[in-house]
Amino acid sequence: MVLKRRHDIFFEHFILIAKNLKEAARLFRENVELLEDTETYAENIKLLEDRGDEYTHTIFKALNQTFITPLEREDIMLLTVKLDDVLDGMEACSDLLDIYRINEPDPYMRLFARIVENCTDEIVEAVQLLAAKKLPDIRRHTFRINDLEKEADQLYRESLQVLFDEHNDLKKIIQLKEIYAMMESILDCCEDVANALEGIIMRS
């Protein structure tokens, strides 16, 4: 019973992290669509990032105290870190939107944010399947995340082309270029989560 409880702690906290990530992505998308109170949104996403750090700490603590783990130790560590990276990216980007005082809705930022939210939906589903030990079913979600990341790559190229073709304000170009790059990086982090899950499938 104690061993089962130790095993449950990892899967329970993977799910908590993923759902926390999904909530952050919802706020992130709302922020980008409205751009009316970027400071408050940044603060709220920071609170979720702090909560995510607590979940991460719990997993690492359990890892240090557990001799037999339900997955390879390296896989638990990698998945935990990669999930945390996604939320860190959203927090950093939200801070930047506030620092730069971005208050004009931008179609590319909106599209990036929606893709991020879609990825977190897939991550939640995949992690729940991991907890249920339905490993083959995870692949449809990792494949979808990979497709979304490719979509984001194309969106990033297009956003830069339009940015340089249609804007003359150097300050705005620099700011938007950095924000686009940061948003694309969040999607790269989502792909890293998918790759970590694929690694677990292959080694199980």
Would you mind describing this structure in some detail?
This protein is mainly α. The protein has one domain: Methane Monooxygenase Hydroxylase, Chain G, domain 1. It has six helices and no strands. α1 runs antiparallel to α4. The longest helix is centred in the last third of the chain and has 34 residues, at 170-203. The two termini are 23 Å apart. The model has no long low-confidence stretch (mean pLDDT 95).
Note the main attributes of this structure.
single chain; 204 residues; mainly alpha; Methane Monooxygenase Hydroxylase, Chain G, domain 1; 6 helices; globular; UPF0111_domain
Percent strand equals under 5%
Largest sheet, in brief, is: none
- The second-level CATH architecture is Up-down Bundle
Count of discrete structural domains: 1
As residue ranges, the low-confidence spans are none
> How do the SSEs run, as a string of H and E?
HHHHHH
Give the integer mean of the pLDDT values.
Answer: 95
Helix and strand content put the structural class at: mainly alpha
Shape type: globular
Quick one: how many beta strands?
0
Oligomer: single chain
Query: How big is the Rg?
Result: 18 Å
Question: Could you please say which CATH topology applies here?
Answer: Methane Monooxygenase Hydroxylase, Chain G, domain 1
Task: State the distance separating the first and last CA atoms.
Answer: 23 Å
Number of helices: 6
* The CATH C-level class name: Mainly Alpha
Tell me the CATH superfamily.
Answer: Phosphate transport system protein phou homolog 2, domain 2
Question: Which range best describes the helical content: under 10%, 10-25%, 25-40%, 40-55%, 55-70% or over 70%?
Answer: over 70%
